[in-house]
Every structure is written in structure tokens, then in C-alpha cells.
Amino acid sequence: MKISINWLKEYIPVTHTVEEMANKISLTGIESSPVKLGEGVDGLVIGHITSVKPHPDSDHLKICMVDVGESEDKQIVCGAPNVAKDQYVIVALHGSHLPNGVRIKRGKLRGQESDGMICGLDEVGVPAQYMPKEFENGIYVFDEPQKPGQAVYDLLGLKDQMIDIDITPNRADTLGMRGAAWEIGATYDEKPTFTKPELDNKKITDLNDVEVKVEDKDLVPDYLIRELKNVTVKKSPLWVQRRLWNQGIRPVNSIIDAANYVMIEYGQPIQAYDLDKLPKKSLIVKKAQDGDKLILADEDKVLNHNDLVVTSGEEVLGLAGIVNGTKASVDENTKNVLLEAGVFDGASVRKTAQRHDLRDDASNRFEKGVDNGIVTEALTRVAQLADQFSDAQEISKVITGSYKEAQPVEIDGSISHINHLMGLDLPTDEIVKILDRLGFTVKVNGDKISVTIPTRRFDMSIEADLVEEVNRIYGYENLPNTLPAGMETRGGYSKKREFSNKLRDVLLGEGMDEVINFSLLSKKEVDAFNTIKTEYTKLLHPMTEDHEYLRNSLIPGLVRNIAYNQARNNNDLRIFEQARIFDRPKGQARPNEIEYLSGAISGNVSGDSWNTKAQKSDFYYLKGIVDELLMFTNADAKFEYKATSEYSNLHPGQTAKILANGQVVGLIGKLHPKYQKAQSVDETYVFELSIDALFDLNSKNIKSQSAPKYPSISRDLAILVKSSVENGEIIADIYANGGKYLNDVTIFDVYEGKNIKTNYKSLAYHLEFLNPNDTLTDEEVEKAFSLVKDSLVQKFNVEIR
């Protein structure tokens, strides 16, 4: 909301600079910034066109002689289609400055001298979308004669100073000039004075040609109408137009401008209807039926049963509190007008405006709340202005569709308690004076006070609100500086947080980059990796279809990161995310939040160099990272990788569950080729681990030991085994039968293909035996080695090579 200083002066005396005022208002809790219109613009005056003739060398340029208050008229070449003799226009003289650094100089156009420029509003600083439509493609022409040579700034509001206040949602009372006057006046200990609108009693009659009905009074507590007969719709006065376009509102005509002016003045949106265009002499506010249509100037909106509408007969005239259609719009031919003022439920207005992408100044005010105590006065004010601008012959009394008398809120409080909460010791008189500056009525009974809050401050209801108001106006900067007292709380992380931080540091040490993604996914994404087989948790009112569900896996977000980067030719990626997923068991209303850790790699893990070749990412590279991660958990558990094909979007031959003591704690695998293609990513490998499950495992006791004094003995073992047998099963059996001196087992060769039987593979292992207390003998090693081979032959039917 932009507060015009010139307009504000009508309510309170203003003696401070706009910068000082914006700063002081900000200190009261409402962020404000100064706005100075027309900075750097100069040399603009009124010009009177005394003659116009065609340019000899152009079919669209005209040579104008213009009186600018000097001894001689100036010759100016103008190409505007609407330029004509006897017009009063804006002239930029030689040497003048226009917005965006434009400077006007004397020169020649097609051989004819031009001493200045005749301007349109957009050329002097009024945005094109806010200037009157009739001047969109031409120069601006004043409706009434003006004094040539007079500066145009005050006439057009080009040098007005404004305060742009960025209100919080609870302070909708400042969305009108009168409410802002109370706020700024309280800041400077000045009470605003307002003139109550009055109508010409001779014109007020018992007109009642229209039936007005509200079907749902819970959503529409106030709905009032006034009827104006035999109006003359024309352009509104210039002072109204300039105030509107400085507020970002395009002037239309004397009726619509009066309605928009009152919206800015009171913060109360007003609608106007052409009475003669109504399909039926009635206005009914009700819920729309599915399939109803609202016809707007640029498009039609298809409505549903959740939309609150204003209808006449079977026709929808507009969305209540948002926008009117073209069916009963007021134009220059309108003779009889209905003016509407109401209070509409903010939640209903917000949802409808959002659903149809129609949020505007009116809906913004209803969403945040309007003062139901000034609806009648605002309706009287707009009728007054409409009569003043359009000369109505008859004005009806207020026609009521719905009305709920506004009741001021009374808040009881204690002077001592207010002081205690502020940390001050203000006298009762000073607190009362501060509340009085805000327009509150205060009764004092000893330490107790009772404060009556005007209806415009519907954000206040409890004693804490009184404390805030006293604090704001007294000045936060005036509060004493004190150190907090009480017991100190020792900071630190929980055990689980320390655990998750350690795992994060491991991945950072592995050269992976951390990412942070939204916790909301689309339906397709939650379907893609529901590995925990949970019920989905859907938002009631999601922002978009891509953010409807709480995530059940971190992998979709990582895949999206991979796709985004690879689309921008950043192909070599190693990323991870540590965050929560949401698991909702069947029948449970709220999901459980589980800490997870997921990673993804794609592209090369190392590039080409003069002495090395590029190394591509693969399953085993990622498995090495996961192995190190699991080692750092220090869990007293047996970790295993169990091959699986149950995850539809992971490769069935390169995917495994990660088990700890037989319990599934995560997964690792390659994305399925079809899924990779659908997501537009190259070969990508992913893993996911439950931090909560890993944290719940028992920890190992770490014992230090000296380096071995005796040498180890190694044996190599090559076997031929069926392809279906997993390496993990072989290694587990070797450890089980290798005896107490078997220290380590490593696979160093895998071969399938030529000279190997079909569906078989050749595996080669390196076995290391070590006795830390004595020298091993060949007999001891051979005995253990024989047991290993015999067990493998018996259990897996291997062939020793």
C-alpha cells in the first residue's frame, strides 16, 4: 500500500520528510520505504496548441505551434494521432529531463525544426497500464483549459511523495488511507480528522427497484446496496485520476473511479452494476453451480459449487469480493447504477481467487479482512462521489441484503502486568495517552484498565495485543537493554544428531556434494520409490500438482537434481541428501518422520589425465562408499547385500537390499534403463539408508592391538561355480570354515565367457591366515584350506581350478 503524502495531509499535519517518516513507521513494526515520484524529471509545462498543419515530408507527423507561456509560440513536431488545435497538453521544453535518463533537445524532424516534445503520460512517468485508455496510443490532453507555461507536476501528481508500507497480514486496517492516517498519526501523536460523507437529502428517495438476497449469511455478514437514477457517466476529475494511477489503478469513468477511490480511501472494496443491464431486477449472493460461467473481458471462467457469486436471474454477474464480469458493467451509456458494499469471508475469497487466478486489490483486502464497522459509511461515501461526478437525480436509501452490527472489542488488562511484560515502569497516564493516540477508549480503575477497540483494529483481542501496541508507539528503541536472567542451557547435539552428522562428514570426505530438496513430491514421484510400502500423505491444498504429497523417499529428488544438471552439460555428479521421509502406517492420521540418508552418482568419478584414463561410475564404486559409511557407524552388526528385483525402477541385476543382522536398513542399485530414459538421465547409481535404523544398532567396543609380530601365510583359491551363486555366500562360507587364523578374504578375479561353461562363472579369492601369537605352519594352513575347499564343493557344487 502506497500512502500519498499529499492525500495524508488532508487528515493529519505532515511536517517531516518522507524518509524520516518511513524510518519512524518501520520502527513501530510496519516495514516502510520512501517513494519519490518524478525524481530527475524537470522542464515539463502546460502547452496550448494554437495551430496544427501536416508535415510536408511525412504522412503521420504534424507541425504544431504551441503556447508555453513565453513571448513566442514554439514549433514542435508531433506524431501522435490524437493531436489537434486548441488542446492543452504536456510539453517537455528544450533541455528538460524525462524518466530513464531521457533528455529533450531542440532539433529537426524530417527537415522541420522541433523545439521540445508534446508528451504522453507514459513518457513522463505514468506506467502505460495505469493511464486512461483513451490516451494509450497518443499524447495526454487536459479536459479543461490550463495556464500555458504552468508546471504540470502538481496537476498530474508527478512529484508526489509516498510511503510504501509492507503490511503484515494482520494489519489490513492500513490498506486504506484513513487506517494509515490513524497509524501514522499515532506515531507522531497526531489524531486524524475525517469529514463524514453526506448526501443531498433532496435526492434521497424510497427507491427500491431491486430485490437483494443473501443465501449464506455466514459467508456474507454484510451486503448493502444503493441505487442511483439518471446519472451521467463521464470522465472523473483529474485529481481523482491522478490519485488512482499513482496507486496503480487505471481510471475508467466517473462511477468506477468513485468506487476505486473509496476502496483506497476506506480500504472497503465497492462494486458497481448497470441496473438496466441486469437480466432480472435482483441481486442474489449464493454459491455457484458446477459449470456456471463468468464472462470477463479477456476470458471466460468456468465455476464450481465452491465459488461464491453475485447473480441476477440465471446470470452470474461476478465472483463475490473479487471481480465483476462484463454482463452488467458500467459504461458511458449507463443511466441507472447499483453500488454494492459488503463483507465477504476471507478464506472463501482467497480460495476462489487462487483457483481462478484472479487475485487483485479487492480480493487482497477481503482475504486479510475489512472493517465491518464502516461498510455503510463507505457506501454513502461512494454514492456521494458518484453523485458529485455524475450528477444523479435520485439516490435510494440503503437496501439491505445482509447486515450484522459491528461490535467493538473490549480488552481488560493491568497496568502493572503491561509494564512487567515490557520491562518498563510507565505511569498510568502515559499508557492511557498512548492508547488514546491509537483511537482506543480507555477506562481506568486503579491498576485495572478496560480498553474498547474500534472495529477497524479487528486484529486485537487479548491483553498481549495491548502490550504490543504500547510497545510499538512508545518505541522499541526506547526499551532498556538488559541481559537475560535465569539458568543457562548448555548447548549441544543429541546423540542421534551427532551420529547423522558423522555420516554426513564421511560422504563429504568421499567427495560427494550435499543437496537440499523440497519435501513435497508429485503423485508419480511417490509411486516411483515407495520402497517402505507406506500409505501416501496428501496435502489438502497443495500449491501445484508437483508438490502434492509428502515424500516417502529421497531418491526422486536426487534424480531430479541429476536431470537438472545433466541438461546443462554438468554430467559428472556425486550428490547426497540427509533429510526426513514420511512413513504413514495404514489407519494412522499423521505420518512418522524418519531420518534418511541417500546418495546418487552418475558420469565419471575421475577424468582423463596424461597418465590415467577416465573412470566411469558403477555399482561397485558406490558400494565402496556405502561400505565405508557402514564401517563408520561402528555398529555391532553383520552387514550384508542381498540381491533383489522387487524394486520396479531399479535394475533387477544390479540392485541389492542392505541388511544389518538380517534387518533391512536400506538399498543400493542402478536406476532401471526405462526409468533413466523417462527422467532424461544417464546411467545413475543410488543408495538409501535409514539413519534411525542404523542408530538403533548396538555399538561395538573398539580395542586397540599391537601390530602382528609374526608373518602371515596366503593361499589363492580359484573355483568354477553357477552364475546364480552370490559372491557374498561364498565369502561367508569361507569365513565359516577357515578356522580361527583366517584373517582376510578378498576376491580378485571374476570371469564369464569363452572357455567357461554356460551359466557358470570363475571366481578367484585371496585368503590370508595369521596367528598373532605364534608362527603359523604350513600344516595348520593346509588343514584349514582343505576344509574351506571341501565345504564349497559340498555346499555349492563348485569345481576347484
From TrEMBL:
Pfam families, sorted:
B3_4, B5, FDX-ACB, tRNA_bind, tRNA_synthFbeta
Ligand binding (Mg(2+)): D459, D465, E468, E469
- Cellular component per GO, a single term: phenylalanine-tRNA ligase complex
Q: What is its EC number?
A: 6.1.1.20
Sequence ranges assigned to domain B5 in this UniProt record: 406-481
Bilayer-crossing residues are none
Q: Which GO terms describe its molecular function?
A: ATP binding; catalytic activity, acting on a protein; magnesium ion binding; phenylalanine-tRNA ligase activity; transferase activity; tRNA binding
* Record text on cofactor binding: Binds 2 magnesium ions per tetramer.
Catalytic activity annotation: tRNA(Phe) + L-phenylalanine + ATP = L-phenylalanyl-tRNA(Phe) + AMP + diphosphate + H(+)
Note whether Transport occurs among the keywords. no
Q: Which UniProt keyword terms apply here?
A: Aminoacyl-tRNA synthetase, ATP-binding, Cytoplasm, Ligase, Magnesium, Metal-binding, Nucleotide-binding, Protein biosynthesis, RNA-binding, tRNA-binding
- Give the domain of life: Bacteria
Q: Which GO terms describe its biological process?
A: phenylalanyl-tRNA aminoacylation
This protein's cofactor list reads:
Mg(2+)
Primary localisation category: cytoplasm
The entry's localization annotation reads: Cytoplasm
Q: Where is the FDX-ACB domain?
A: 708-801
- Per UniProt, residues of the TRNA-binding domain are 38-153
InterPro entries on file: aa-tRNA-synth_II/BPL/LPL (IPR045864), B3/B4_tRNA-bd (IPR005146), DNA-bd_dom_put_sf (IPR009061), Fdx_antiC-bd (IPR005121), Fdx_antiC-bd_sf (IPR036690), NA-bd_OB-fold (IPR012340), Phe-tRNA-ligase_IIc_bsu (IPR045060), Phe-tRNA-ligase_IIc_bsu_bact (IPR004532)
Subunit relationships? Tetramer of two alpha and two beta subunits.
Which family would the database say this protein is a member of? Belongs to the phenylalanyl-tRNA synthetase beta subunit family. Type 1 subfamily.
What's the protein called, per UniProt?
Phenylalanine--tRNA ligase beta subunit
Provide the species name.
Answer: Companilactobacillus alimentarius DSM 20249
Lineage, broadest ranks: Bacteria, Bacillati, Bacillota, Bacilli, Lactobacillales
Give the encoding gene's name: pheT
